Amino acid sequence: MKRLFAHPSLAIGLIATLIFLAIGVVSLVWTPFPIEQIDIPRRFLGPTPEHWLGTDNLGRDMLSLVMAGTWTSFLVAAVAVVIGMGVGVPLGLAAAAWGGPVEWLVLRLSDFIFAFPAVIVAILVTTLIGPGAPNAILAIGIFNIPVFARVARGGALSVATLDFVAAGRLAGLNNAMIAWRHLLPNIMSLLIVQGTIQMSLGILSEAGLSYIGLGTQPPETSLGLMLKDAQGLFLIHPLLTIIPGLAIVLIVIALNIAGDGLRDAIDPRLRQGNPNVLA
Amino acid sequence: MSLLEVSDLSIRFGATEVVSGLSFAIAPGERFGIIGESGSGKTLTSLAIAGLLPEGASLTGRIALDGAPMPASERDMARLRGRRIGMVFQEPMTALNPLMRVSEQIAESIRLNRDNAAVQLEVPALLGEVGLDPSHGSRFPHQLSGGQRQRVMIAMALASQPDLLIADEPTSALDLITQRKVLDLIAEICARRHMALLFISHDLKAVARLCTRVAVMHRGRLVERGEAAQVFASPQQDYTQKLVAASRFDPLRAERPPIGGTLLEVDGVTRDYRQNGFVFWAEKSLRAVNEVHFSVAQGECLALVGPSGCGKTTLAKIIVGLDRATSGAIRLDGTSYHGSDLPKPLRRDISLVFQDPFGSFNPRRSIGDSLSEPLRLEPGLDRPAIDARLVEAVTAVGLHADMLDRYPHEFSGGQRQRLAIARALVTRPKLLVLDEPVSALDVSVRGEVLALLARLQLEFGLTYLIISHDLDMVAAIADRVLVMEAGRIVEEGRPEQIFFAPQHRLTQELVGARLPDIGTPA
Question: B223 and B126, same structural domain?
Answer without folding.
Answer: yes
